[in-house]
Amino acid sequence: LPFSAAANLRPGAEQKVVFITARVHPGETPSSFVCQGIIDFLVSHHPIAKVLRDHLVFKIAPMLNPDGVYLGNYRCSLMGFDLNRHWANPSPWAHPTLHGVKELIIDMYNNPKINLEFYIDIHAHSTMMNGFMYGNIFEDEERFQRQAVFPKLLCQNAEDFSYSSTSFNRDAVKAGTGRRFLGGLLNDTSYCYTLEVSFYSYILGGTASAVPYTEEACILL
Q1: I need a surface site. Which of 47, 67, 71, 98 has the fewest CB within 10 A?
Q2: Model-level pTM greater than 0.85?
Q3: Is 31 exposed, middle or buried (0-12, 13-18, 19+ CB in 10 A)?
């Protein structure tokens, strides 16, 4: 890599980890473009990227459903499963990518030298505009309020991110998703989100102008 080893990668160092997953639903191609943009930025020479590398460890699984992508499926895997409903008890033979990622996350969670700060699962939305997030609801009001800070910061710094479309829920139908399962597993210092980006376009703030998304625009998101 074109940069020196960060202090948080040295033996014995306490690691703060950001875990990112994408493309659990094969047809949601914008999620791959967004994930590609994140990777490109993190390994770049940008000064902010260097600060991030110096303070955080990023672990990225860019395609959780490679067989579904290969087959051209919209939502399911080769075995016909919607993988984003099986986080609670993934099978090593029916949901191998999910099983492997979950095992890795649990190993990190049980390691006192690792603090899993963020989990972000990237998706694409077929009907809504802009980028937005789904977050979890907690009984602890202070934890819930802290969780709202990150989407607010995104809204302030990205013209295509919509905080008004961001929502927090605990719908029973979403219980098997990565965001819901890990939000219930990890401790209150961790933040778990689903990041959605529109298939189509975003609306510029204060206008009615729709700006179409392109592959490049998603990568630069």
Answers
A1: 47
A2: yes
A3: buried
215 catalytic per annotation: no
The single-letter DSSP state of residue 214 is -
Q: How confident is the model at residue 69 (pLDDT cuts 50, 70, 90)?
A: very high
**Structure-block tokens of residue 33:** 């473009």
Q: Under CATH, to which class is 2-212 assigned?
A: alpha beta
- Tell me how far apart the alpha carbons of residues 199 and 214 are, in angstroms, rounded to a whole number: 9
Look at 105 and 7; give whichever has higher pLDDT. Answer: 105
Question: What's the average model confidence in pLDDT over 71-87?
Answer: 95
Catalytic residue among 117, 196, 215, 216: 196
